[in-house]
Structures are given as structure tokens and as C-alpha cells.
Write a structure and sequence with these properties.
Number of helices: 11
Order of helices and strands: EEEEEHEHEHEHEHEHEHEHEHHHEEEE
CATH superfamily of the largest domain: Response regulator
Strand content: 15-25%
Number of strands: 17
Helix content: 25-40%
Strand order of the largest sheet: 10-9-11-12-13-16-17
CATH topology of the largest domain: Rossmann fold
CATH class of the largest domain: Alpha Beta
Largest sheet: 7 strands, mixed
Structural class: alpha/beta
């Protein structure tokens, strides 16, 4: 399905979805062969509302960013609903679940609401996605991981949206090489979580070294809840690491900066957008971040309404969006496109959604990122573009775009 925009002034910002020939009748084909819908868990044909689940960390240290993701999803669904809903006929309603970034709680929350939703339009975290995958396969259910891990890209029950960790690391290294901030004489290292998401970043780093010729230094690791980083930072400093690929989140950054400041160590740190909190601008780490952090993310400057997705999201929120708002908005685009195809095919069950993903081609994100390639699961590819930012406490979201929709000239790496 392709998107089009209403020309009337009253609906200038509403995203219209192409209507499909669907009637409110039992499942199967009518006598004239027209496709029809039936009730399934999360969708009652008499009510007509499609319910989707958003599983994220609604409590704990990640709650503020998770709530922004939920707000971003709802902003897009509000656009869809303002035009009648999916296929112009079926409104979408979000049911939230709190996994607290804990895979055991993710399984409990899945069991609690699985019969109330047709799909999960977000599941926060690699570990939660990994824990749910065999259950999704058993139940023939569909979820969209709130992660960039490429190991999920070709899973039949999962629908991806974002550029992979590998591509973000590789694109940023390529950009810095083009800008002269990295050369073949540079030593580039990593400080990453001791898990598969950390290894994905390491893969991007090592691919960059193969393509650009710089030296790979030590790989240091940590657990997501670690609070002391002196040992890792000392190792990186001793090795002369000029650039460090960092795999932490907002809860890790203040302690990282404290250790680096104490040891008088100031490399260029390459982080993902979810390592940056808006609240950092009012703390004593802000200057260090501005001098030393390069950040990968989505879209571009968050007040750049020449980007169609930013314009629509800004209008829906009535304020400048955050990067987490953009994240949720993009996931809702993915979910709606899948639902639209499933309605066209006449089946909103889990197996119908799986069939719908296999029948899709590319999903366009209104200038917020490159397209996600769907189709049969083995053929799927995540976007290969990254937005690259400097930390700027005066900019919206504390991020100032250095490059948008950037892709390394050498192309994506293997499996990226």
C-alpha cells in the first residue's frame, strides 16, 4: 500500500491509506469472490476496532523514553483514525504492557494481553524479543521488536523497522573517515554490552576496519546495569583508542563520563540516540558530551519540518518531537502497513499478518529513514541509512544533524 495526502485544508496533515474491498462478514469469500474479514483475538468485526499491543518499560529508569515511544505510536494511529482507520474503515487502539526491560516480565505481559490484540506493534529490548520468539512461533503471532538487532530481520514472526546496529556503526565510521576525523593511522576500539547487541556493533566496527584500513583496538564490555567503568576506560586509554564505539543507554552515560573525566580521557565516542537524555543538558556532563560524542539516530533535526514525517508528528503532538517519538511513529507506520495488507488479504489473524508481511515490498517512512524491505522472511533487509548528529544542548533533543539519510559509499556490510 502506498500513502497519499488529502488536499483539503481540514485534512492537510492526515495520512490517508488506500481503501481495500473489505466487508463486515464472516471469514472466507463471498459468492462473487470478494475478500471479507472475520473476528479474531484483538478484532471484533461488530466493533470494528483493531487493537495492537505496545510492550515497553512503562516503569523503571527507561520509562520516560518508553512513554515517548508510546506517544509517537499513538500520534501516527491518530492520523490513521482521523481518516477512518486502516483501509479507511477500522480504527486502531493501542493497549500498553509494561515489561520493565525484563524478559521474564515480557513473557508474563504477553500472556496477559495476547488475546486482546491482533499483534504487538512494539516489544522493547533484544532479550524480551528473544524470550518471546518461540512463543510467537507457537502461537503464530506477530510482533515488531523495538530494537535494531539484525539477527531478527529474517524471522517470520517479527517485523523490523530500523537500521541495524551494525549499519549505524559502519555508517558513522565511514562518515568520520570522509570528514578526516579517522584515518588509516587511527586506533578504533569498542565499549559494548556483553551480549549480541554489543557484538553487532563490534561487527560494524570490524567491517569498517576492513573497508577503511584503520586499526581495531581492544574490545571492552559491560553489563547493562553496571555503574562502574573505570577499568574499561583505563584499558581504552592505555591502548591509545582515538575513537570508541559505545553500546550503552542513558543510564550508563553519566558513569561513563565520570570515569573518562577522572582519567582525563577524551576520545570520540560513537553512541546511539538512546544513550542521550534531554535532561543531560542541565548537568555537568553536558560539556563533555558536546566535545566528544557523535550520535546515530533517525530523521534529522527534530524541528526540520521539511521532513514530511517530522511535520506530521509535530502537528500531532503540537510540539517539537523527540527522537523516541520518531521511533514510535515509525513503528506505527510499519504496523499500519502490515495491517493494511492483511485487511486487503482478508485475514487479521496471526497467520494472516505473517502472510501480509511476506506479500509486502518496501515500507516508506516519510523521510524519517530509508525503506525497510519486506517480502518472504529470508529476503528482508533493514534500512541502510543513518542520521548522524553532534551533541548540542541547545538543539531540540540535544542533537544537531551532521548528516541525514547517510549510507556508506561502499554499501552495506554482509548481514547488515
Amino acid at each position: 500500500m502506498r500513502f497519499r495526502f488529502a488536499g483539503a485544508a481540514a485534512a492537510a496533515s492526515a495520512l490517508l491509506l488506500t481503501s481495500c474491498a473489505v466487508q463486515t462478514a464472516p471469514t472466507g469469500d463471498t459468492d462473487d469472490g470478494e475478500t471479507v474479514l472475520a473476528s479474531v483475538p484483538g478484532f471484533d468485526i461488530d466493533d470494528g476496532t483493531i487493537h495492537v499491543g505496545e510492550m515497553t518499560a512503562l516503569s523503571g529508569p527507561l520509562a520516560p523514553s518508553s512513554e515517548e515511544q508510546v506517544a509517537g505510536q499513538k500520534a501516527y494511529y491518530d492520523l490513521v483514525n482521523a481518516d477512518g482507520g486502516v483501509a479507511g474503515e477500522y480504527p486502531v487502539e493501542v493497549i500498553t504492557a509494561d515489561n520493565q526491560y525484563n524478559p521474564q516480565l515480557a513473557v508474563q505481559e504477553y500472556q496477559r494481553i495476547k488475546d486482546d490484540v491482533v499483534m504487538f506493534s512494539g516489544v522493547l529490548g533484544d532479550a524480551s524479543t528473544e524470550a518471546l520468539l518461540p512463543i510467537l512461533e507457537r502461537d503464530e503471532a506477530v510482533a515488531l521488536p523495538s530494537t535494531q538487532s539484525s539477527r531478527f530481520t529474517t524471522e517470520e514472526n517479527l517485523g523490523m523497522t530500523f537500521t541495524s546496529y551494525q549499519s549505524n556503526a559502519w555508517n558513522t565510521l565511514s562518515y568520520l573517515f570522509e570528514e578526516g576525523d579517522i584515518s588509516m593511522d587511527s586506533v578504533v576500539c569498542s565499549m559494548i554490552q556483553a551480549d549480541e547487541s554489543g557484538q553487532a556493533r563490534q561487527d560494524g566496527l570490524e567491517h569498517g576496519a576492513e573497508q577503511l584500513g584503520f586499526e581495531v583496538g581492544p574490545k571492552t564490555e559491560f553489563a547493562p546495569t553496571d555503574a562502574a567503568f573505570t577499568a574499561q576506560v583505563q584499558t581504552l586509554k592505555n591502548a591509545g583508542c582515538e575513537v570508541v564505539v559505545f553500546g550503552g543507554a542513558t543510564n550508563n552515560v553519566p558513569n561513563l563520563v565520570a570515569a573518562a573525566t577522572q582519567l582525563n580521557y577524551s576520545p570520540t565516542w560513537l553512541a546511539e540516540f538512546f544513550a542521550i537524555a534531554q535532561s543531560f543538558k542541565d548537568t555537568d556532563i553536558s560539556d563533555y558530551l558536546a566535545e566528544n560524542f557523535v550520535v546515530t539516530g533517525l530523521a534529522g533535526d527534530l524541528d526540520d519540518t521539511s521532513i514530511e514525517g517530522i511535520r506530521l508528528l509535530t502537528e500531532q503532538l503540537s510540539e517539537t518531537p523527540t527522537t523516541q517519538n520518531v521511533y514510535g511513529f515509525m513503528q506505527a507506520i510499519t504496523a499500519t502497513t502490515i495491517l493494511e495488507k492483511a485487511v486487503e488479504l482478508g485475514d487479521l489473524s496471526g497467520s494472516g499478518l505473517i502472510e501480509a508481511m511476506a506479500a509486502l515490498d518496501e515500507i516508506d517512512y516519510l523521510g524519517l529513514n530509508g525503506p525497510m524491505t519486506y517480502g518472504p522472511a529470508p529476503d528482508r533487509m533493514q534500512p541502510d541509512t543513518s542520521a548522524i548528529f553532534a551533541y548540542d544542548p541547545e538543539a531540540p533533543g540535544s542533537l544537531r544533524a551532521l548528516a541525514t539519510m547517510y549510507a556508506a559509499p561502499q554499501g552495506r556490510g554482509p548481514g547488515f
